[in-house]
Amino acid sequence: MLKPLLSVRDLRVDLNTRSGVLHAVRGISFDVAPGETLCIVGESGCGKSMTSLALMDLLPRVARRSADEITFDGQDLTRRRIAGKLRGRRMAMIFQEPMTALNPAFTIGDQMVEAYLYHVGGTRAQAVDRAAQMLEKVGIGSARSRLGQYPHQLSGGLRQRVMIAMALMTDPELLIADEPTTALDVTIQAQILRLLKDLQQELGLAIILITHDLGLVSRIADRIVVMYAGAIVEEGTAAEIFDRPAHPYTRALIDCIPQPGKTERGAPLGTIPGVVPLLIGRQDGCAFRDRCSLAQPRCADDIPTQDAGSHHWVCIHGGQA
Amino acid sequence: MSYLLETVGLTRRFQVGQGMFKPKATLHALNGVDLRLKKGQVLGIVGESGCGKSTLAKILLGLLAPSEGSVLLDGKDIGTIGRMDFTRRVQPVFQDPFSSLNPRKTIADIVTMPLRVHGIGTDAERRKRAAGIMDMVGLPARFAERYPKELSGGQRQRVAIARALVMNPDLIICDEPTSALDASVQSQILNLLMDLKRELGLTYVFISHNLSVVEHLVDQVAVMYLGRVVELGSTAQVFDAPQHPYTRALLDSALTVAPSLGVPDIGLGTAFPNPLAIPPGCPFQPRCPRAFDLCSRVRPHPVDVALGGAACHLAEEPLRGAA
Amino acid sequence: MTAITTNPPSRAGRAFRRLAHHPSLLIGSGIVLLMVLIAIFAPLIAPHDPYVQDISRRAVPPVWYEKGTWENILGTDQLGRDYLSRLIYGTRVSLLIGFSVVAISGLIGTTLGLLAGYFGGKVDTFVTFIVTVRLAMPVILVALAVVALFGGSMWVVITVLGLLKWDRFAVVVRSTTQQIRALDYIASARTAGASTAWILLREVLPNIAPQLIVIATIEVASAILMEAALSFLGLGVQPPLPSWGLMISEAKSYMFFSFWLIAIPGTALATLVFAINLAGDGLRDMITPERS
Ligand SMILES: Nc1ncnc2c1ncn2[C@@H]1O[C@H](COP(=O)(O)OP(=O)(O)OP(=O)(O)O)[C@@H](O)[C@H]1O
Ligand SMILES: Nc1ncnc2c1ncn2[C@@H]1O[C@H](COP(=O)(O)OP(=O)(O)O)[C@@H](O)[C@H]1O
Ligand code: SF4
Ligand code: SF4
Ligand SMILES: [Mg+2]
Ligand SMILES: [Mg+2]
């Protein structure tokens, strides 16, 4: 693998809640290479958003972050000053709900231009040119007139495109996208993902894409990280995860979705019994064990990490069934 | 008349303001929708956001009156069926399990609400019925005295299903019943809906924008675009041999699990459908990759509800459609 | 989440535990409850008849003054009536007026708000219009005018304030109802065949109860103060009925000689209003955070 652009080692996020400390992210480690797409998948509440916010240092105030290492291109992101300089310039983020990330009181042009002037500098005219150019790049016609519009005057799909254009204004090397298309129609979702893929090739962008949609992941990921209850349970390339899923949770998750051509129409779908565990307090042994069909008594002990080249999973079972 | 549900030329218009000083514009949310559904079948409705799916659901539920056209239940106009009779027979399951349950009522209160509205049974009888239904949908009896906020999304959706079933309805209108749920919970709810249908002989109208789910669950599919049905047919017809270019684009854009396929280029262009300015000719023409001169002038014939098919000039002459 | 599998404590137990987290609510409602008990049992508690005048014992100071006696713990007023007894009976007037006014105004405001919020359209336009008209009228001036016309009595005060002070109820209930109306549980009730009255009373009302309680406490406090103000101006409760406002008014000419005559009912009034507001704040804090 290339020298990683982003390295994360033992990232933890703890939240103080009324019922105790909630460990939303429990020591995860991963790398992202330049130009690569890494997908983080998992059910809601498994800590995906907390991970992305922790990387961008945008956690809510009740949250505490700790990590052995978070480096971007060799620079230490745990140092506030360095992170402040890189964030919004060399690393950018797209949020799930664009309406919350765009300021309703300013035109999209103003928001794009201000961010650019702040991070890159130059004259206002240059910034406006750049903004119009980026809007065209994301497929928004008559870009100049769009710059004068307010976020609420745009449809959901357009807003998400504006978010992408805005994120790409400063020519970042890493884009973190948290459920960027969950709220959108399938047609618009396909268009936006296509766009991201094209821009990635053109600009050599690395992308961390966070989602719960396995179909989407299978289409876009170079590598996949599967999270469960704040921890990574399996990691591998898209082919490894979908053709030879090794962790029982990954397998169960794939069985849950109807796959045209594979699942028989009308036949019962796979299910995972039980509910996601509460993330408050310590977790000994495998967090998945009360829902796992292959669980054994020793699943309550320390679980080894199984390796098969670039493919890792955390389970007592080594073989890929 | 062997159809449980039939709609004839359903049209719904809304007057929408466009800012302070502009006159109100007319929005056609539904435009001449004809559908038929036999007892025991599942009719899927798919289409992009804003195409009129929820408007259709509201009309079928009697929550909204059509501007024109009618809804027939067992051949009788629902306007002529008494409200109480109608509400006993047609029940909803909505998308958002967080807003569909009254946060100040216990689960038992929520499930028995329709019985109380209809004055059916004594308190004890109602409780017993609720317990039976809760068991059927997989809710433990101890949830009866809990409040919605103590339940997970999937459990809440089960409560909503229990409430819909408590009156023994014939027809359930599901508007995106699993869109707000995780994949693992979605599969549980879908399995439950399929089991209930088999056991109770229910009929569903199933609205969803998730095409894999629709393909898995339904017998008939209606594809909607800007308030119209543009393609209608059996699941096999529509999913295996789509005729309308829009249906094809929808199917192409569905991201099924297929690591080798990558993100499709669906070739729809960047125009967005605007229900306030529906173009003359074929409504899909501004985005259609196969549009030709006729399309911008002449509106294709609507889908024949008896035969199915697609509302597209190309589909009218199968030979040209193959070209 | 896993919390689902643990058995929840009983409703009363939970309510009590939540109460314990809100000391201001505990203190506020404790004081109010005490005052309500005093009002109810006034004839049993009051040491003397509040109306009996004793010319020989005029303006006796409270016990803690040199000339005070245990006979009249809080002294007597300028007509020789026992001040403690008058204070105790005055609690009745204040609370009766506070709660009656809010019962009337709450009913009017809630009804208007529910109808406007639920039906929208012309009903909403109409309600918004009369709220605007009502807000254009200064309560105290209108009350003064009415009392001047019909003469002052406790029931006139209650009626006038009750018919005037519903605006806050109407405004808040209207906007909350608008939000609730759009939720799917209302649609579910409609598809179950529920009538509008059923939906408003059984589905909407329980969900605006928290807001209603909070407004009600504010309005009770404000009505009590308004009664005091009107009585002070001589246009509210008429003598010899003991009302705190009236007591302050009657004492105002003796302010420099017998300061306690004003200080005592003044303190009682301030305490009650403070306690009600404290309880209202506590209720709001307890109800608003919808944390799981
Ligand atoms: N009360 C209303 N007033 C004005 N316009 C409305 C109203 N309800 C719906 N519409 C419009 O009617 C059209 C169809 O809306 P509908 O809610 O049926 O869409 P949908 O297909 O359910 O979309 P989604 O997938 O987003 O739920 C939309 O353009 C919508 O904006
Ligand atoms: N502000 C917060 N306060 C307390 N807990 C939170 C907060 N935000 C998130 N959590 C909890 O942290 C966990 C992980 O959340 P998140 O990262 O948002 O999950 P997701 O994988 O769905 O993005 C969840 O259990 C969630 O309830
Ligand atoms: S460690 Fe045990 S419980 Fe966990 S996934 Fe593997 S088999 Fe299942
Ligand atoms: S009628 Fe023309 S524009 Fe419409 S779908 Fe068919 S080919 Fe496309
Ligand atoms: Mg999230
Ligand atoms: Mg809808």
From TrEMBL, chain A:
<feature type="domain" description="ABC transporter">
    <location>
        <begin position="6"/>
        <end position="254"/>
    </location>
</feature>
<dbReference type="Pfam" id="PF00005">
    <property type="entry name" value="ABC_tran"/>
</dbReference>
<dbReference type="GO" id="GO:0005524">
    <property type="term" value="F:ATP binding"/>
</dbReference>
<protein>
    <submittedName>
        <fullName>ABC transporter ATP-binding protein</fullName>
    </submittedName>
</protein>
<keyword id="KW-0067">ATP-binding</keyword>
<dbReference type="InterPro" id="IPR003439">
    <property type="entry name" value="ABC_transporter-like_ATP-bd"/>
</dbReference>
<dbReference type="InterPro" id="IPR050388">
    <property type="entry name" value="ABC_Ni/Peptide_Import"/>
</dbReference>
<comment type="similarity">
    <text>Belongs to the ABC transporter superfamily.</text>
</comment>
<dbReference type="InterPro" id="IPR003593">
    <property type="entry name" value="AAA+_ATPase"/>
</dbReference>
<dbReference type="InterPro" id="IPR013563">
    <property type="entry name" value="Oligopep_ABC_C"/>
</dbReference>
<keyword id="KW-0547">Nucleotide-binding</keyword>
<dbReference type="InterPro" id="IPR027417">
    <property type="entry name" value="P-loop_NTPase"/>
</dbReference>
<keyword id="KW-0813">Transport</keyword>
<dbReference type="Pfam" id="PF08352">
    <property type="entry name" value="oligo_HPY"/>
</dbReference>
<keyword id="KW-1003">Cell membrane</keyword>
UniProtKB/TrEMBL annotation, chain B:
<dbReference type="Pfam" id="PF08352">
    <property type="entry name" value="oligo_HPY"/>
</dbReference>
<feature type="domain" description="ABC transporter">
    <location>
        <begin position="5"/>
        <end position="251"/>
    </location>
</feature>
<dbReference type="InterPro" id="IPR017871">
    <property type="entry name" value="ABC_transporter-like_CS"/>
</dbReference>
<dbReference type="InterPro" id="IPR050319">
    <property type="entry name" value="ABC_transp_ATP-bind"/>
</dbReference>
<protein>
    <submittedName>
        <fullName>ABC transporter ATP-binding protein</fullName>
    </submittedName>
</protein>
<dbReference type="Pfam" id="PF00005">
    <property type="entry name" value="ABC_tran"/>
</dbReference>
<dbReference type="InterPro" id="IPR003439">
    <property type="entry name" value="ABC_transporter-like_ATP-bd"/>
</dbReference>
<keyword id="KW-0067">ATP-binding</keyword>
<comment type="similarity">
    <text>Belongs to the ABC transporter superfamily.</text>
</comment>
<keyword id="KW-0813">Transport</keyword>
<dbReference type="InterPro" id="IPR003593">
    <property type="entry name" value="AAA+_ATPase"/>
</dbReference>
<dbReference type="InterPro" id="IPR013563">
    <property type="entry name" value="Oligopep_ABC_C"/>
</dbReference>
<dbReference type="GO" id="GO:0005524">
    <property type="term" value="F:ATP binding"/>
</dbReference>
<dbReference type="InterPro" id="IPR027417">
    <property type="entry name" value="P-loop_NTPase"/>
</dbReference>
<keyword id="KW-0547">Nucleotide-binding</keyword>
UniProtKB/TrEMBL annotation, chain C:
<dbReference type="InterPro" id="IPR035906">
    <property type="entry name" value="MetI-like_sf"/>
</dbReference>
<dbReference type="InterPro" id="IPR000515">
    <property type="entry name" value="MetI-like"/>
</dbReference>
<feature type="transmembrane region" description="Helical">
    <location>
        <begin position="257"/>
        <end position="279"/>
    </location>
</feature>
<feature type="transmembrane region" description="Helical">
    <location>
        <begin position="139"/>
        <end position="164"/>
    </location>
</feature>
<keyword id="KW-0812">Transmembrane</keyword>
<dbReference type="Pfam" id="PF12911">
    <property type="entry name" value="OppC_N"/>
</dbReference>
<dbReference type="Pfam" id="PF00528">
    <property type="entry name" value="BPD_transp_1"/>
</dbReference>
<keyword id="KW-1133">Transmembrane helix</keyword>
<feature type="domain" description="ABC transmembrane type-1">
    <location>
        <begin position="91"/>
        <end position="280"/>
    </location>
</feature>
<keyword id="KW-0813">Transport</keyword>
<keyword id="KW-1003">Cell membrane</keyword>
<dbReference type="InterPro" id="IPR025966">
    <property type="entry name" value="OppC_N"/>
</dbReference>
<feature type="transmembrane region" description="Helical">
    <location>
        <begin position="25"/>
        <end position="46"/>
    </location>
</feature>
<feature type="transmembrane region" description="Helical">
    <location>
        <begin position="212"/>
        <end position="237"/>
    </location>
</feature>
<feature type="transmembrane region" description="Helical">
    <location>
        <begin position="93"/>
        <end position="119"/>
    </location>
</feature>
